[in-house]
Amino acid sequence: MTKQAVCPSCGTGNRIGSGDPLAAKCGRCGGKLFTQTPVDVDDAQLEAHLKLSSMPVLVDVWAPWCGPCRMMAPHFAEAARAFEPAVRFLKLNADQNQAPARLGVRGIPALILFHKGQEVARQAGLMSAAQLAAWLNQALASLGQSEMQR
Fold first, then answer.
1. Residue 150 confidence (pLDDT)
2. In this structure, are residues 87 and 136 in contact, taking their beta carbons and an 8 Å threshold?
3. What gap in Å lies between CA 32 and CA 79, rounded to an integer?
4. Which of 8, 55, 94, 136 could cysteine-pair with 100, CB 3.0–4.6 Å?
5. Which domains does the chain have, with CATH numbers?
6. Which residues of the chain fall below pLDDT 50?
């Protein structure tokens, strides 16, 4: 199976070679495909990631005024350092995008895990990095994938 990822800089879909994925660069803009940090996305960028990424995609739906969202941000970033490139970490601002309503998000922070464009797990509320990693590993195991944390 060909691995694919969306460039966090320009949004172009890229095939990933058999080498180290952390060294992979975008064929269009030359930017790194994986930075081990969450990527801020809008509705269109979210759709591109869901459509073109072969790895699971974890979306954090948040808002700048939400205290628990701000408290969870460093934990989400820590999880991104541990799991990427096996899982893509995205941040979607609920105040600036329509996707949260379309996805049925009722409370934030909300984590939604997608695989092959389909929602496979959802969790609402503040979580520590350890809780997030445990939840994510359980969700990945249900996909038949081994634990991906490095």
1. 40
2. yes
3. 19
4. 94
5. 36-142 (3.40.30.10)
6. 146-150
pLDDT computed for residue 144 by the predictor: 78
Long-range contacts of 38-42 (CB under 8 A, 24+ apart): 38/76, 38/77, 38/80, 38/89, 38/90, 38/91, 39/8, 39/88, 39/89, 39/90, 39/91, 40/90, 40/91, 40/93, 41/90, 41/91, 41/92, 42/92, 42/96, 42/97
The residue type of 27 is G
For 21, 27, 103, 118, 126, the CA distances from 55, given in Å and listed in that order, are: 12, 18, 20, 12, 24
User: Does 66 qualify as catalytic in the annotation?
Assistant: yes
Query: Which string of b and e fits 54-84 if b means at least 16 CB within 10 Å?
Result: bbbbbbbbbeeebeebeebeebbbebbebbb
29 is known as an active-site residue? no
Structure tokens at 138: 């359980």
